[in-house]
Write a structure and sequence with these properties.
This protein is mainly α. Helices cover 50% and strands 7% of the residues. α8 crosses α12 and α9 packs across α12. The termini are far apart.
Length: 355
Amino acid sequence: MSRKRKGGCLGVVFKLFVLLVLVAAAAAFWLWQRYDGFADAPMSGIENGEALVVASGDTVPAVVRKLREAGVVEGDSLEWRALARQLGAAGRLQVGEYELKPGMTPRELLEMVRDGRIVQRRFTIVEGWNIRELRAALKRVAELEQESAGLDDAALMKAIGHAGQHPEGRFLPETYAYTRGDSDLDVLRRAHEAMAKALDAAWARRSKDSVLKTPDEMLVLASIVEKETGVSAERPQIAGLFERRLRIGMRLQTDPTVIYGLGAAYDGNIRKRDLTTDTPYNTYTRPGLPPTPIAMPGVDALNAVANPAPGDHLYFVAVGDGSGRHLFARTLAEHEANVRAYLQNYRKARQAESQ
């Protein structure tokens, strides 16, 4: 073969090689553009309120299948796996529920799942709820596993690790975060622990001359103060008034305890026969504190009982104007005058409502 022909063949081979390199480069560039456009392009098919649930053992292809079921069509399995490797998400998918938002990109979604930014839901225990109201509210939360269904109060307390303890007043009114897979018992455990800490802290700060003998007595009185007023500034006054009654042996005579003792029989009205019918919770017929709390007291009520306001008031009655405030009195005569004022204000308020 002549040198000329040999040189010509080498030239053709070189040109083919260069062509192949250019084609490969173009293909790589096209693939990169497609991949880059996929990673940062908003996903279609997502509506407000949708969620992605990553279960234990889920891989990237499993997540992609769930996204397809949710209506996401962008990207093939190869692109999703490549993006997951680039972001360090492959093999690090965190179990939980994730909020899908319209306009989010595949990159944002995989970073969210990699970092475990799961949906945080919230449940609020309201100050003054009793255990029946608390359990009914928990039952309405569809996202919580209902593990307490069928348990009576005693079995419930045993299930959360406090067998033999009465449940009333034992759960601190606060807002608690929970995630998918949590149960109603999980929330109750956290609320019980929070109340135990709040009660310990209030007991440690109590007035040195407190008439209360135990933290449980403080919890009982705080629950009464919680139910007697929704006006935060009045709680120390009412706590001080009840302390003085306990100290001199005067009966508490507080309607909320009577109402609690009536239970489901209470129809919204408290009658004279209710005040004279003896129950363990009737503080008109029995001296001292009732046997258990009557509601869930908040931190303000606990602090009020720990450090009640000084004074010599022994009586109080609602103002009757709808404000929730009270009139305080030192003597029975002053109190009876306040009661007359209350009745007058109450009638005026009712007349205004009817007009």
